[in-house]
Write a structure and sequence with these properties.
The chain is an alpha+beta fold and 295 residues long. The chain has 2 domains: 116 residues, Rossmann fold (3-Layer(aba) Sandwich), CATH 3.40.50; 160 residues, Tumour Suppressor Smad4. 25% of the residues lie in helices and 35% in strands. The protein contains 8 helices and 15 strands. The strands form 2 sheets. Strands 5, 6, 7, 8, 9, 10, 11, 12, 13, 14 and 15 form an 11-stranded antiparallel beta sheet that branches. A 4-stranded parallel beta sheet has the order 2-1-3-4, with helices on both faces. Helix 1 links the parallel strand 1 and strand 2. Helix 1 runs parallel beside helix 5, helix 2 runs parallel beside helix 3 and helix 6 packs across helix 7. The two termini are 17 Å apart. The mean pLDDT is 94.
């Protein structure tokens, strides 16, 4: 067997190449060849998966974080020949939030799970913007979720704690945005602190933003926080993100749907799988069981 292996040397603590060196002998012992390609720039994994002849491989392995997996998915689903092969994920990022839903938090354990060759089909969300079409594995965030994503990049040297620190700072400087949310036949126009759509339970590092989410249920879990929530209340609610109990707060609304749209007055930036990409307005729909992963 032969797997194309995409290694992102810039993910997390920049240890992806070292992780490859540790797992490569494990695969070799099972007569599985890993064809290593190291990414050189942002978006490189999209290009590699989109243009590589996948007919000569039995699967793709990603060594990186959620952003690298996001790129691989977008490369796979934008292929002209529509060819899809299973993807294996080895955690090497700082958040690895989607991987937590797959229980793939240890690189060595993840390698053995891939070697077992058991596959699972998972959902993907499709995002329509004015001049762009993207696919998401984990989250589509607007409002404070985007602000946190932007600010956390400045604290990447801290590691996973950067998401919590960035969240606290953004709560202190909280700003609301007005938007029209169309979901499940409702039109909700008001000020929001943030809206986030999740395909998986976890975002950031261990924040259980969507505790009811399943990666293969054909549904998107959409969480909104009303704009009238006070800063002190937000600071009290923040720790509950790590248990999922925030959804019981009166200012928090929880929806499950297969499609929704957001329109805002300004062209607000979006947080898609931890990457700041695109802007409002946008529409999202679920693609059930769109790809297979080794799990």
């Amino acid at each position: 067997m032969k797997f194309i292996t995409i290694v992102n040397p810039f993910s997390g603590k920049r240890k992806s190449i070292q992780i490859f060196d540790k797992i490569n002998p494990i695969f070799n012992s099972k007569n599985i060849e890993l064809h290593k390609i190291v990414t050189k720039f942002k978006g490189h994994a999209v290009e590699l998966i989109q243009k590589t002849n996948l007919n000569i491989y039995d699967g793709v392995i990603i060594i990186g974080g959620d952003g690298t997996f996001h790129e691989a998915i977008n490369g796979m689903l934008n292929r002209h020949d529509k060819k899809k092969i299973p993807i294996g994920i080895i955690p090497g990022g700082s958040g690895n939030s989607f991987m937590m839903d797959l229980n793939l938090t240890n690189p060595i354990e993840a390698a053995y799970k891939i070697i077992n060759l058991k596959k699972r089909s998972i959902d993907i969300t499709k995002i329509y913007m004015q001049k762009k079409l993207l696919y998401s594995i984990n989250l589509v965030g607007w409002g404070m979720v985007t602000d946190v994503g932007i600010r956390s990049e400045n604290y990447r040297f801290i590691g996973p704690l950067r998401y919590t620190i960035a969240s606290i700072i953004e709560i202190i400087f909280k700003k609301n945005r007005k938007a029209l949310l169309e979901i499940n036949g409702e039109k909700i126009q008001q000020e929001f602190t943030f809206i986030v759509a999740c395909n998986s339970i976890n975002i950031g590092k261990g924040m259980k933003m969507a505790p009811k989410a399943k990666i293969d249920d054909g549904l998107i879990d959409v969480i909104t926080v009303d704009g009238n929530i006070k800063r002190k209340r937000l600071l009290k609610v923040l720790p509950k993100l790590f248990t999922g109990d925030h959804i019981y707060e009166p200012e928090v609304n929880y929806y499950q749907t297969n499609k929704f749209s957001i329109t805002s007055i300004n062209k607000d930036l979006l947080n898609i799988d931890g990457e700041i990409i695109g802007s409002t307005p946008f529409k999202v729909e679920i693609i059930p069981k769109a790809i297979q992963v080794f799990n």
